From TrEMBL:
The lineage of its organism: Bacteria, Bacillati, Bacillota, Clostridia, Lachnospirales. It is found in: Cell membrane. GO terms for cellular component: plasma membrane. Keywords: Cell membrane, Membrane, Teichoic acid biosynthesis, Transferase. The keyword Membrane applies. This is CDP-glycerol:poly(Glycerophosphate) glycerophosphotransferase. GO terms for molecular function: CDP-glycerol glycerophosphotransferase activity. The keyword Membrane applies. Pfam families: Glyphos_transf. PANTHER family: TEICHOIC ACID GLYCEROL-PHOSPHATE PRIMASE, TEICHOIC ACID GLYCEROL-PHOSPHATE TRANSFERASE. It is a peripheral membrane protein.
């Protein structure tokens, strides 16, 4: 594993020398007005955040190119080959869609005819990221890793400032059009499919209340810090037979903590969950759309607050804040009784109001694709 500083210098060289060279080669050919690229370097298939738009394009006469590869596993030669291919295709594309950091897209002087849309994978705003924290992008990094965006999608106007600041983006390109992946939470058929999948895997959970622990990672994405999961077994015993506890770890943590992680993706667990237990994860904002109780288990909250890690006051969050493990079980069991629906509704309206079930339709109209 390359250490963080070495990775940054490798990225500087790739962004400023190697990738631009291959883009210039690709520019020999003209832009193809019907070429659409979906690109991602964290998954081998189109990520959930772009899946609905990808499926929409598949019904049209656009030429849809899927350039996705999980480059987090250490296959550096394969990852480089994938990214160089992207640069050659990028030079000819009319539209490029992303949903996460993707350095190649920022590594050239993009043609004006090409539209790059960042469909960021997280809703709301909470933990500082990108240029707002040195743990993500250090001060010595040369280059703008978010260069060339034409449009950045957010879940509400109240969140726009975090994208302007964190991505060093012009306010003019940050738009609260909503996140198309959240449209599914308004579809009864999707909710039923989630239930069917869950109970097929966990038939013993039928008739019980479902608690989902879905924490995020600490540190930076390339070198995540592992959080303590040792309390899970004890918590299960405390909750007793009335509850079924599911653990769903952030992708950056799954490789380090084996055994406990539920293989069903988080977005398909939320519709079957009665109480969400999380911390600083954006999954909290998705769960707002279901208007159900949240427990915020944050034993390290004092550290985060002391070190100015948030965009908002954490006490604004619509959930039961728990710092001590000894109080966690009681908070889960009584979460429904103390659930402040009005506070959650107001928070949802402020930070997720563009996620109303029509985000895909709005994006298609905004880009004048149909």
């Amino acid at each position: 594993m390359l250490n963080f500083k070495v990775k940054q210098f490798v990225k500087i060289i790739m962004q400023n020398i190697v990738f631009p060279f291959f883009y210039r080669i690709g520019k020999i050919a003209p832009v193809d007005d019907r070429l659409v690229i979906f690109a991602d370097s964290h998954h081998d298939d189109v990520p959930y955040s772009m899946e609905d738009l990808y499926q929409w394009f598949e019904t049209t006469d656009y030429k849809v190119l899927k350039l996705t590869k999980d480059c987090d596993g250490g296959n550096y030669a394969g990852g480089l080959k994938f990214m160089l291919r992207f640069m050659l295709c990028y030079a000819k594309a009319r539209y490029v869609f992303l949903c996460d950091n993707f350095l190649p897209a920022a590594s050239c002087n993009k043609r004006e005819e090409t539209t790059v849309v960042q469909m960021w994978h997280a809703g709301g705003m909470l933990k500082k990221y990108a240029y707002d924290t040195p743990r993500d992008i250090p001060a010595y990094y040369k280059g703008n890793v978010f260069k060339n965006y034409s449009l950045i999608l957010t879940s509400a106007e109240a969140c726009n400032r975090a994208y302007v600041s964190g991505m060093r983006a012009s306010p003019d390109i940050v738009k609260a059009l909503g996140l198309s992946r959240t449209d599914r939470f308004y579809q009864q058929r999707y909710k039923q499919l989630c239930e069917d999948e869950f109970y097929a895997m966990y038939p013993e959970a039928r008739g019980k209340k479902i608690a989902l622990w879905a924490p995020t990672f600490r540190g930076n994405a390339s070198q995540p810090e592992i959080i303590d999961c040792s309390f899970i077994g004890h918590l299960r015993k405390q909750l007793g037979n009335e509850w079924f506890l599911v653990v769903n770890l952030h992708p950056h943590m799954q490789k380090h903590l084996k055994g406990e992680h539920c293989p069903i993706p988080t977005e398909r667990l939320l519709p079957v969950t009665d109480v969400l237990i999380s911390d600083y994860s954006s999954v909290i904002y998705d769960y707002l759309l279901l208007m159900r109780p949240i427990v915020l288990y944050v034993p390290d909250l004092d550290y985060f607050e002391k070190n100015d890690q948030f965009y908002i006051d954490y006490n604004e969050m619509p959930g039961i804040i728990v710092k001590e493990e000894s109080k966690l079980c009681d908070a889960i069991v009584h979460a429904e009784e103390v659930f402040d629906r009005d506070k959650m509704q107001q928070f949802k309206e402020k930070y997720m109001n563009a996620c109303d079930g029509h985000a895909l339709e709005r994006l298609v109209d905004y880009l004048q694709l149909s």
